[in-house]
Design a protein that fits this description.
It is a single chain. This protein has a seven-stranded parallel sheet, sandwiched between helices. It has seven helices and seven strands, in the order E-H-E-H-E-H-E-H-E-H-E-H-H-E. About 45% of the residues lie in helices and about 15% in strands. The protein starts with 6 loop residues before the first strand and ends in a 7-residue tail after the last strand. Strand 5, helix 5 and strand 6 form a beta-alpha-beta unit. By secondary structure, it is of the alpha/beta class. The chain binds nicotinamide-adenine-dinucleotide (NAD). The site of nicotinamide-adenine-dinucleotide has 26 residues, from helix 1. It holds the Pfam family adh_short_C2. This is SDR family oxidoreductase. Belongs to the short-chain dehydrogenases/reductases (SDR) family. It comes from Solibacillus merdavium.
């Protein structure tokens, strides 16, 4: 068991990669605080973990709300007495709009969740990590945070920001025993597509034009296994990096 008795908070863990990560972490011995927008969603993940004999608790938390993040980090302390691992996974897509078509409200919503949500949770976890002199943050970025052609302007800019924040956090806290790394997934089969049902088809076609080579889509478990590596002692000497997980899509 690679995470025996570690306490992990995972945002957006009712679905996709967050859910797969919560289940894998629990299988590896972690006590998991599963958070998402609804109790029904988070509770369903907890029920799966419990059925496997794991330990988890559900917390409703919108990462766009400071009070919810406060409640989430407190829940880890109240339920399990500490916090070791924070996975900033919650994220939303945009509608593939290029900058000339971006609507302010969509831009703001994407940044509130994808960037400010990561900052908020990291900020509120930090006092616990500093007191322990240990802690690990894993931010779910995207290949859209490394390249300019896989989504719209808002999502692409938000994921570039997540990678910048990851590196800055790693640098600022490395000497305090706190690590921060990111994963940049390629296309993974999750529910995130539901949020761009009103996609600007022209923009999407343009965005995907560079995607002629894509060996395969990922499954949420492909990303969960990378998160496990970053959460475990196996990656003790790894800090401030972005691990691309895309089966080679962006390797050429
Ligand atoms: P998903 O939609 O299946 O899961 C995301 C979860 O986040 C959902 O359960 C949703 O309810 C939750 N969520 C959304 N807004 C939230 C908020 N404000 N507060 C709390 N929870 C919120 O999507 P996924 O693909 O598993 O996405 C996980 C992460 O992976 C996201 O950050 C996404 O940007 C990133 N990502 C996804 C892909 C992909 O192809 N699926 C590729 C690269 C990166």
């Amino acid at each position: 068991m690679r995470l025996k008795d570690k306490v992990a908070v995972i945002t957006g863990a009712a679905s996709g990669m967050g859910k797969a990560t919560a289940i894998l972490f629990a299988r590896e011995g972690a006590k998991v605080v599963v958070s998402d927008l609804t109790l029904e969603g988070a509770g369903a993940t907890v029920a799966e973990i419990t059925a496997l004999g794991g330990t988890a608790t559900a917390v409703v938390a919108n990462v766009a709300t400071e009070a919810d993040i406060h409640k989430l980090i407190k829940a880890a302390l109240n339920s399990y007495g500490t916090l070791d691992i924070l996975v900033n996974n919650a994220g939303i897509m945009d509608d593939f709009s290029p900058v000339g078509d971006v609507k302010d409200d969509l831009w703001d919503r994407v940044f509130e969740v994808n960037v400010k949500g990561v900052m908020r949770a990291s900020r509120q976890a930090m006092p616990i990590f500093l007191e322990k002199g240990a802690g690990t943050i894993i931010n779910i970025a995207s290949i859209g945070g490394l390249y300019g052609s896989r989504a719209g302007a808002a999502y692409t800019a938000s994921k570039h920001a997540v990678i910048g924040l990851t590196k800055n956090t790693a640098f600022q806290y490395a000497e305090k025993g706190i690590k921060c790394n990111a994963i940049a997934p390629g296309g993974v089969n999750t529910n995130i597509g539901a949020s761009f049902s009103s996609a600007n088809q022209e923009g999407m076609t343009r965005a995907m034009a560079g995607a002629s080579f894509n060996p395969r889509s990922g499954e949420p478990e492909d990303i969960a296994r990378v998160a496990l590596f970053l959460a475990s002692e196996d990656s003790d000497f790894v800090n401030g990096v972005v691990i691309t997980a895309d089966a080679g899509w962006t390797a050429y």
